[in-house]
Amino acid sequence: MLTDDTKDAIRATYARLKEGLPGFRPRPAQARMIAEVAKALALEGGAAAIEAPTGTGKSMAYLIAGHAVARAQKKKLLIATATVALQEQLVERDIPLYLKLTGTHAKVALAKGMGRYLCMRNLRMAAASVQESAQLGLGLDADLALWSKPPAERDRQALGRLAGAFERGEWNGDIDAAPDAVSDFLRPMVTTTAGGCTGRRCAHFSACPLFAARRAIGDAEIVVANQDLVLADLTMPNGQENFGGVILPKPEETLYVFDEAHHVPGKAVDRGASEVHLNAAVRQLSRLGRQVHAAYSLTDKEVLGKLALDAGDAKLQELSDGLEALERDIRLAWQPDPDEREPVYRGSLGQLPEAWVMHAGALYALSAEIQRWLGAVRRAVAEMSEGGPTQEALARELGMGLERIDRQVSTWLAWTTDDPEHAPPLARWVSLTPERHLVCHASSVSAASLLRSVLWGNASASVMTSATLSAGGNFRGFADAVGLPDEAATLSLPSPFDLASQARLEVPALAALPDAREAHAQAICDWLAEHLDWSAGNLVLFTSRAKLDRVLQKLPLDKVRKVRAQGSLGKAQLVAEHTADVEAGKGSTLFGLASFGEGLDLPGKLCETVVITQLPFAVPTDPVGATYAEWLESRGRNPFLEVSVPEATRLLIQYCGRLIRTEADRGRIVLLDRRVVTKRYGSTMLRALPPFQRVIERT
Questions:
Q1: What fold characterizes domain 4-20+29-114+213-270+447-492?
Q2: pLDDT tens sequence across 649-683
């Protein structure tokens, strides 16, 4: 429990913060948040969900409370964010400021996923492949080569600059802080995956940026990680009949704070998703077979993993034949509509045709056997005392092949496992790519059961916070999505801003509703052309790329010239150009999708009008959401009112939050979707929005 000594330490730290921060203004919401975070984290197994609007000062609140409790209990404080941007803000600005102002000393570590660190082995192999490519075409054996085609000159130069910066100690190997932006093509050449990493057996282990970062975690009091890495760690078996503590500190010794926690349900569902591209899987098995032959030859072994080479070949061929047989059955049974852009066959309540399930059962047994055998083959290669570049390349490729087999095992197991009687079923479906290739998918539809088992049941204590977790103060939707314990505290803090005087919510009298796609796109275009202040800074948010593009096509050319649309440039460059034009008095309008509706910070004149073109309801054809909705309906519940409306409301509040970022900001939010007026659920959504001044035009 929260002791008097810990309370005194928190009060003293907060007092030093108030004294040291120029222009500090007491915020009752921040003080309340400090108290609630401290109470939750001090309780063994404690849990809380705290909604803290923009301006609350939530990072300082959870740092003050969390660090004090962690020190008192001799535990780690782990802050998990959804975005790299917030990670960097915490490590580079917020935490140093907290430590400086409060006179506190603490070691801080930044933890990222493996794909965000330089792999020295792959960098050297890529450079070697460049040299050999110049002389021998593609250089190494095609099954082991990093380059699928001769590299361009810019890629050769980029490799040299990365290697030079790292060797001179000018760069620590964090890809996000690379001296040159690492292109999407080059990135997989200079990073690795869990399967491709040989850990301590690697010749470059002592200088590895990833393991240097991992070692720093062990010494740190405060660890900042992304949510994907935290969820990956929590779901890793640790060899002690439990989960977590493989990469990050042990859950029972950790106090967790999930910032941007509205992303947690989706990320946790993604952790349990798997898929197999049937055509690619068959091709990859052929390549894997050649690599296995190389492994037997290199190790000079007749038997690896209790299988002779001929027997292993037979297993790979049997799996390949089984995949092709499943594909034939699916194509015979399912005739997609040729007019559909992304055809999907979804099993009702997760149930697929019996013939497909029988195929999946056989594929599961085979892939699980190959998984065990391939693991032994890879270990034999990795443990060789001297194998040179060929050994390193082969160990990497076998590891990546093993990852692909792991995905097959997960997918076929999910296709054949019976669903629990009183829990939502798994979503199981097949999709068709634009190239007409079949992909088999499986996913849980709710994060609740996973988080109950790996987080709430294992962590010392956990707090989830965000600017938007509830629907107007109602936490039921979020609590159901994350499996929040019944005894957990929930708190929605008021905004520190005077929103009634700073912002106005307008709902114009548009004639068209979003259902009439073409008419609604024209109505949006007409309103923007006539009523938007094009000489100011604006943000216009869309729910689909198609509608964004359609409105751009319909806008007058003089207006289009003032638009910066998401996707035309990188997000940072778009915002920089937008800022420059607004500050120069030219006016600029950003057109964006969902990612521009969250996390974009455009204070003052940079954004004086936010236009929300449509209520952000989820796509109804999403197989995961559709399966969950179907299950709710089967139990007499209303998925639209229970899930769709609360989630759309939360997103709508998030989008509205782009407008008022400081106490000095003024502006308006314009909602071009009359369903908030014409539909019964609309009044519920309007009541949940912050207390802006309302101007709702009547038709």
A1: Rossmann fold (3.40.50)
A2: 999 999 999 999 988 999 999 999 999 999 999 99
